[in-house]
Design brief:
Layout (H helix, E strand, L loop, with lengths): L20 E4 L5 H11 L5 E5 H17 L3 E8 L3 H11 L4 E7 L4 H9 L7 E5 L7 H6 L6 H14 L4 E3 L5 H8 L4 E4 L18 H7 L3 E4 L1 H4 L4 H14 L1
Parallel strand pairs: 1-2, 1-8, 2-3, 3-4, 4-5, 5-6, 6-7, 7-8
């Protein structure tokens, strides 16, 4: 059964930090994923299953993790012709995932087809705008003029109009996307790094506290937690920082 997802402001209700942290299970197989989840010791509510793990372990892993009480962020970045993407949305309905990504670069017809394919039990749909590994030079190389911030806002506005439940963007664009798409949009933010931590291959990053202050709904954190000697302790440190915001 799909997890209920709501981050729209409600008077007198505050979403706990644990319910706003997604740990990225960027590992190659189910065995490694289950071992990592055990080491997290329940520190987070959300687990992100991306392409590497999903293509290796498939639907069974999603169903098992959801059955263990976790909310699953299925990060597949679907990008194809509208009919194919709509079919993919229908295929993952009922697995227990709460969130599913499609690529905003697929255009409004593809996004509308994905939204129309949602049925009871389907995950909420998030449009990926500009990857956090891309900067202005990367965008220019693929023929996109202007800054990442301009492109993110353009895609987020289109995605909202096309029926998406939320967007994925970097911490640098959260405030602008929140203002443009409203309080009901689910804004999922990768590129989170603790102060002083290595950026790795991320270009547009911020701390957890900064992202929360700017209007993020869910923060996605991978290597700062998963590569730590004690992943549960690293996750709790980020939760403390989120609470401070």
């Amino acid at each position: 059964m799909t997890t209920s997802v709501s981050f729209a402001p409600q008077e007198g209700v505050q979403v706990a930090a644990r319910d706003r942290l997604a740990v990225a299970l960027d590992v190659p197989d189910a065995k490694s994923a289950y071992e990592l989840v055990d080491r997290l010791d329940g520190a987070c509510r959300w687990l992100k299953v991306g392409m590497e793990l999903y293509y290796s372990a498939g639907n069974g892993l999603v169903e098992t993790l959801a059955g263990r009480g976790y909310s699953i962020f299925l990060d597949l970045k679907l990008h194809d012709i509208p009919n194919t993407v709509a079919g993919a949305v229908r295929s993952v309905t009922g697995l227990g995932a709460g969130l599913l990504t499609v690529h905003a670069f697929g255009g409004p017809a593809m996004l509308r087809a994905a939204a129309a394919a949602k049925a009871p039990g389907a995950p909420k749909l998030l449009a990926v705008t500009v990857l956090t590994s891309m900067d202005q030079s990367e965008l220019s190389a693929v023929g996109v003029p202007g800054s990442p911030a301009d492109q993110v806002l353009r895609l987020a506005t289109m995605a909202k109009a096309s029926g998406m439940d939320g967007m994925v963007c970097s911490p640098e664009e959260v405030a602008a996307v929140r203002a443009a798409t409203g309080p009901e949009s689910i804004l999922v933010i990768p590129g989170i790094r603790p102060a002083g931590a290595a950026a790795d291959d991320q270009r547009r990053t911020a701390t957890a506290a900064d992202a929360i202050r700017r209007g993020a709904s869910i923060l996605v954190v991978g290597r700062p937690i998963t590569k730590a000697p004690d992943p549960a302790a690293a996750a709790r440190a980020i939760l403390d920082e989120m609470e401070s915001a």
